[in-house]
Specification:
- The protein is of the alpha+beta class and 254 residues long.
- The protein is 38% helix and 24% strand.
- The protein contains eight helices and nine strands.
- The protein has a four-stranded antiparallel beta sheet with strand order 2-3-1-4. A three-stranded mixed beta sheet has the order 5-8-9.
- Strand 2 and strand 3 form a beta hairpin.
- The radius of gyration is 33 Å and the shape is flat.
């Protein structure tokens, strides 16, 4: 009877009963797997709460902030608050522009919400004649991934070129939002002797204004990438004027 009973016993519990070290080995493997997985676990103090936001902006050229609030914000905001799914709003009146942000709850159909917001705008009271048509813009959610520090025994201009090349490579790999910080704009120094200023009867302010009219900071265009185009950062130029005479210098900036 005992031999028959022992032969019929099976299952994982009976296996660990017959092999006393198997349970300890399994526990050790589980602890080791947990230690290996700890560095790869994502940890954060607060969870990401994604809230969908629609922003309605209306331009009213040459209008004061008080007029914008009375003629646009107080007219549109009550109608927009009646849209289904709106959990909160924030309105700001600037000089010449009004901005109303509508926050929606999680899981909201934003395409439908945008149509309802447009319908609410169409059904609102008439805006001032000089006000432009309202514009609806949908906000996006982005999560900060990491910080990348570029350093080396080269100048700041070369580090800036390295950063631009890294932005292009990241864009080709699918990272579409990057920010470059810590690179100062170029500085051009124009030094004018004081005797030349007296000879030509011209001042530093006039030279700075003339240079300022000729200097433009236009975007450099698009940087082509293997899988699309990454927008290039707009160029920047700073010019410092110096007037020197007898060891003394006066400065003006453009």
């Amino acid at each position: 009877m005992n031999g028959a009973d022992s032969g019929t016993g099976g299952g994982i519990l009976s296996y660990f009963t017959r092999h006393k070290t198997a349970a300890n080995l399994l526990m050790g493997l589980m602890v080791l797997a947990g230690l290996v997985a700890v560095p790869n676990m994502r940890a954060q103090y607060f969870p990401d709460v994604v809230s969908e936001v629609l922003t309605v902006s209306v331009a009213w050229p040459n209008a004061g902030a008080g007029d914008v609030d009375a003629g646009i914000v107080q007219v549109l905001e009550p109608a927009l608050l009646l849209v289904a799914g709106v959990t909160g709003s924030a309105a700001t009146a600037y000089e010449g522009r009004a901005r109303i942000s509508l926050e929606f709850g999680p899981g909201q159909d934003m395409a439908r919400a945008e149509r309802e917001v447009q319908a609410a705008l169409d059904g609102a009271r008439a805006l001032p004649d000089a006000a432009e048509d309202p514009e609806i813009r949908r906000g996006g959610f982005s999560d900060r991934v990491t910080d990348l520090v570029i350093t080396g025994p080269v100048g700041a201009a070369q580090l800036g070129r390295f950063a631009d090349e890294m932005v292009t490579r990241l864009f080709a790999r699918g990272v579409t939002q990057t920010t470059v910080q810590g690179v100062a704009a170029g500085l051009t120094v124009v030094e004018v002797p004081s005797l030349a200023l007296i000879r030509h009867d011209i001042g530093m302010e006039e030279i700075a204004a003339a240079i300022g009219r000729e200097v433009t900071a236009e975007p450099a265009g698009d940087v082509s990438a293997p899988h699309g185009c990454a927008p290039a950062a707009p160029s920047a130029l700073r010019i410092r004027l110096r007037a020197s005479c007898c060891g003394r210098r006066r400065m003006a900036r453009v």
